[in-house]
């Protein structure tokens, strides 16, 4: 064989700008030719954050009705009003969307939320299952809480690049006159294990993986996005106690049992407290208004309202130490870094408690008559929350994240004096086809059997149930539609003219929602979530009404009755997950494969032949595969 031919087959061809290079017949010479290095194209730098005109920071207040405070310990149920005053942006901000609100004569939007009340979580700025027009129909959505990690798949968060005075509000298109937007780094409801944080950054979970975020990044993005309220940058461990097979800095293979709390090593907790205190100090100074933007009349420099998560996990001593670090006097260096504050608590507007890492299963039973002062301190949920709140100012706002049930909400109001709550299980109920149906105080009922918190509309018993979703006033129970044509342009407006302002229709029934769920229609989840939000909003309204008319002892009695009448949500939700999976598998991806496996299993159980009762001689006996096919087809038909 010609050696040159062999050389051409095994040696790669090299190319330059003029074309293929000539190949040498000498193997040694060819092997010494330098390899051509291919350079990756350098990634373009992210676009800079646009400069924006100065806009005055919102002013928030929280007033507690002192008459509702329990004077024995200061942590009883209380009524209050949270008020946000946001100066109106210039017309350059949202141009045609400028609304001359009648709420104030000073050119500002005024939004009030009564407490106890609810805040709504969001994913990528979207309230689950609800489009923008649906949000306008929903109850209890005055405050929307947004995790920034949903936008961190890009070097610079996309909303920060929006050319507007209030970019976060304008990008998400929530009406300025009716909605409050707050910003945090991580989703409070996410309890998955994450890589360990360090002294320089916190790990955030994005759609493209984990991203490291520093305190300087958080200050930069917060000042660029201009939310109404800001959550402080703190170190909340999402790793478990180290195991023998876990790697340094990696994610532990163990998982957290829901409701039992996350256990963290003592060494990790100490680092967590040190980092968080330093980051909160730096945040206080970093969010101050620039000196050139201070008012001419000598008004002091301001910072946006800041909410600090009270950390420490399931360790009561750690929670107490962090809370006391917020009220201790700062030394000269820290005072300068914090913008002249004497204590960190002076710059804090309110406090937040994250329930997802705490032992919430201790709220599975009704409260005992013994108060936390009379009993020995244990690491129950109430004791951990009170340990964090006792050293702090009782007049400031208190927020509870990831409350697991309405039972827990009632106990947190009664035993800890919490003001605002988010309830992720409300959206989860809509995911599983559950329509909530509970109220406070508990209505008089016959029998002693405990009721579920709602109804699973996937069940066949609702196929012919044409009753409304519930008695709570909500848009699905009293829908209103515009009877005129949909006008897409000014030309349509000239062609079609309607004098009909709108009309009412019959309520959406359980049978209709049952049909939508079994046909995988997205509108089913929107209707369920609209109704469930209305149930929660009415729940808080009834609590406020009861507290204004009764004392604490009567409130505790009603909480006990609520525990007796309504089951915890786990039973209802677990059953709904099973039914949801059955309906999903009936028409979902891989249906044919699952049917074949069912046929094989049935044939293996029945054997090659099966006897049929009353069969006459001479007739063919049905095969097991035929029987299995009929059984599976009938089951699929029933589920659809």
Automatic annotation (TrEMBL):
Residues 263-561 form the tRNA-guanine(15) transglycosylase-like domain. SUPFAM superfamilies: tRNA-guanine transglycosylase. GO terms for biological process: tRNA modification. Residues 1-29 have a biased composition (Polar residues). Pfam families: TGT. It comes from the Eukaryota. It comes from Serendipita indica (strain DSM 11827). InterPro entries: Queuine_tRNA-ribosyltrfase, TGT-like_sf, tRNA_ribo_trans-like. Residues 1-56 are annotated as: Disordered. This is tRNA-guanine(15) transglycosylase-like domain-containing protein.
